[in-house]
Amino acid sequence: MASLFWRGIIILPLLFVYVNGEHFLYPKRHVGKAELAGYKGPDSLAVDGGGFYSGPLIVDDDGSTASGNAGGTTEVTVENLGKADGDNTNGNANSVESTKVAAKNGIGNGNIVEAKTTFKGSWELFVENAGVSAMHLILLPNINQALMFDATVWKISKMKLPRPPCRHVEGTNEEDCYVHSILMDVETGKIRPLRLNYDTWCSSGALDINGRLVSTGGYNNGSDTVRILDLCDTCGWEEYPGALGNGRWYATQVTLGDGRFMVFGGRDFPTYEFVPPQGQKNTVKDVVDFNFLVETHDPVENNLYPFVYLSTDGNVFIFANNRSVLLNPNTQTIIHEFPVLPNGARNYPASGSACLLPIMLKPNEDRRVIPAEVLICGGASHDAYAKADLQRPKVFLPGNTDCARLDITKRNGKWKIINMPSARLLGDMAVLPTGDVLIVNGAKTGSAGWDDAREPNLNPVLYKYQTDGTGSKFTVLNPSNIPRMYHSSFALLPDSKILIAGSNTNPGYLDDALFPTEVRVEKFSPHYLDPNLAMFRQDIIVDKSNNQVKYGKKFTVQIRGNGEIDQQKLQVTIYSPPFVTHGISMNQRLIQLGIVEFNKNVTSNTNNIILQAPMNGNIAPPGYYMLFVNYNGVPCRQSMWVQFLP
């Protein structure tokens, strides 16, 4: 805590530095203002680190091996896919046809049949002023409200609290009467303010078995806080300061197969701990030293907000900087280290993005090992932050253009690397109901930090999880006209649209910066919402479907549509809503369920799908999931919330 105190003392002055203003001012509410560089808050401070730095890496001509990295051997397979589909996104002409995509461990005959479309997506402005800039975002189960919050440190937002009391600013005589946390109805846009007392700046979180958000860490008085938000019309934050054994600022929270939470890292604390039950407190004796986070610490960090995922075998995958390991959470030992991922750093402040790819289950699943793969895209060079934040004049290095994929259940796994259509850092990766991945938000040059990135990447990119072996795995989609840079976020919605929010490269709420603090909220309709495909959208009959299921049990989902259904064109997936912040989507998880039986026409145009629940919590941690029925590659009109229990 002492280091946090002195860090706070250092950053109190507002240091405004004039920067060369010869940059294109992107569309925003305040056009024509001079560019400003915000004061250098804690995000911008370099911390002298433990000295892991990967040296020059040479990829052999055959793309199969690489050498020159300290800290481990690197084995990669490099694919050059060339130009992505849809580089020209100006046309909106749509065509529809069906194509078969080879599906490993898929349903039916092993093929997923999907309608092919040239539709590149569409954007809509949903809310003009959310009140807060959504640094953190998660969709809450059942109530279908998006929780958005920023930080209390700036003592200002775009919305005042509706009534007293105001927040007392610790250590001062000031009162903060601004809103820093809201719930937004994802259908109507109606906003309900929530009060916060302990700073959530750069915090972490996950949903528990009952759908409550359990959030950990933050800044200053919030760094060792656990906070809980329940699901009801009048529920507010319950805050438990001092509940964590270490401060957790820029840490990552993961849900285990038994529903417990672990939280990894955070600035100045290369450790992890299990989140204590509500009302209880950890001490330093409950904290575990994690030398891996010391070894992966560059002089400018590059290992904060590590990518952490529960593997299907119960081990925990942790990726930091450019290295990754499997940790057994029961023995608290590292059981495997994977090859080093070349070409720069991936974690904060280099800030690439990552996701766990779809977990594919068979009917009557009996495999001992269920494959699980991670996808990591973008990031920046190891010195990108130093060049953009610490050097004058600022230098904005190009971001990474590659995506890397690894099966984390294989001990001999190798990174498979392909090139994206463009460079991206500060982006987000949304796993869609179909299993494909939407890469959205972010910039093309620079680093995370205050005023440390340029060239907004306005075009989302679709990554095809499975292909028939022809064409590109990437499709460039239609752009937004709102830059979404540092501190952007997203949520997958029940109607399969993507909620897009946030972006704040400034230490506070500034309207006259190059990239103003963004409080507008958009919705993006991906390719599968092509109006010409609407005929394929099914309706889930919720009152005729099971919405609480025990592991391994069979259950029924009833659907209604237009015309007769071909089982081979059906896909059923379940999705765990992630806690999204800083390009990391904690606990995002999509699982394709095995279809055991399909009963046609139980009534007119109505069909029953008999499914098998995941076998255990390592495949699907207990709690609430959005269940989607996709037909011909097109998601249903509204997902259904299903709770999976031991």
TrEMBL record:
Pfam family of the protein (one): Glyoxal_oxid_N
Database matches in SUPFAM superfamilies: E set domains (SSF81296), Galactose oxidase, central domain (SSF50965)
Signal peptide residue numbers: 1-21
InterPro entries, sorted: Gal_Oxase/kelch_b-propeller, Gal_Oxidase_central_sf, Glyoxal_oxidase_N, GO-like_E_set, Ig-like_fold, Ig_E-set
Keywords (A to Z) from UniProt: Signal
Domain Galactose oxidase-like Early set: 546-643
Domain Glyoxal oxidase N-terminal: 135-528
Xref: Gene3D superfamilies: Galactose oxidase/kelch, beta-propeller, Immunoglobulins
Alphabetical list of PANTHER family matching this protein: ALDEHYDE OXIDASE GLOX1, SECRETED PROTEIN-RELATED
Protein name: Galactose oxidase-like Early set domain-containing protein
Source organism of this protein record: Gossypium mustelinum (Cotton)
